[in-house]
Amino acid sequence: MKKYIYLMRHGETLFNRRRKIQGWCDAPLTDFGKYQASCARDYFKHQGITFKKAYSSTSERACDTLEIVTEGALSYQRLKGLKEWNFGTFEGESEDLNPPLPYKDFFVTYGGESQDQIVARMVATVGQLVSESEEDTILIVSHGGAIANFARAYQEHWETELPKGLGNCAILKFRYEDDIFYLEEVIRHDFSDWKEN
């Protein structure tokens, strides 16, 4: 059975705005982040896309984003396997301390995860929940690094290019067929109507 998975990054957080490394540590959505999530909600409405099944990282920023997108009308499952890359003792520090990409196993020395570990975790988690779901349209709210690394695991099956840097509330649309995830579309929203209070 062919399935469609919408893998979405959370909205902007206080740490995003302050350029803090944010993996397993958490920060609340900003007002702009909440607006971004409402734009994603409107996108799904305008496209006539409805969900009966949704999943989120256990991080509050992802859960809050999902609840805005679904208007709190859909029960969902929170999964630790969908969390962001664990950056160890770099958590909460300035993004200026990040090493050059790709990070590979840099953070392992500091109590974090390697790139291979986050890829394996995301592939296993997303693969299991999609293969076991009876629904053909699924929403998953996760994190920029986690989503990008999941997508790269299926790079040979991309039908569109993955942009450098996945913006807040960007959505990757995958087609799941014969145990393979095909990246069909990258959805980025127009936030130009935002007015700060």
Description:
The protein is an alpha/beta fold and 197 residues long. Helix 2 (31-47) packs across helix 3. Strands 3-2-4-1-5-6 form a 6-stranded mixed β-sheet. It has helices at 14-17, 31-47, 60-69, 115-132, 144-152; strands at residues 3-9, 53-57, 77-79, 137-142, 171-177, 180-187. The protein is 29% helix and 18% strand. The chain has 5 helices and 6 strands; from the N terminus they run E-H-H-E-H-E-H-E-H-E-E. The mean pLDDT is 96. The chain starts with a strand and ends in a 10-residue tail after the last strand. The protein has one domain: Rossmann fold (3-Layer(aba) Sandwich), CATH 3.40.50. The radius of gyration is 16 Å and the shape is globular. The active site is at residues 10, 84. One of its GO terms (cellular component) is cytoplasm. Substrate binds at residues 9-16, 61.
How would you describe this structure in keywords?
single chain; 197 residues; alpha/beta; Rossmann fold; 5 helices; 29% helix; 18% strand; globular; Phosphoglycerate mutase; PG/BPGM_mutase_AS; His_PPase_superfam; phosphatase activity
Provide a quick synopsis of the model.
With 197 residues, the protein is α/β, with parallel strands linked by helices. The chain has one domain: Phosphoglycerate mutase-like (Rossmann fold, 3-Layer(aba) Sandwich), CATH 3.40.50.1240. Helix content is 29%, strand content 18%.
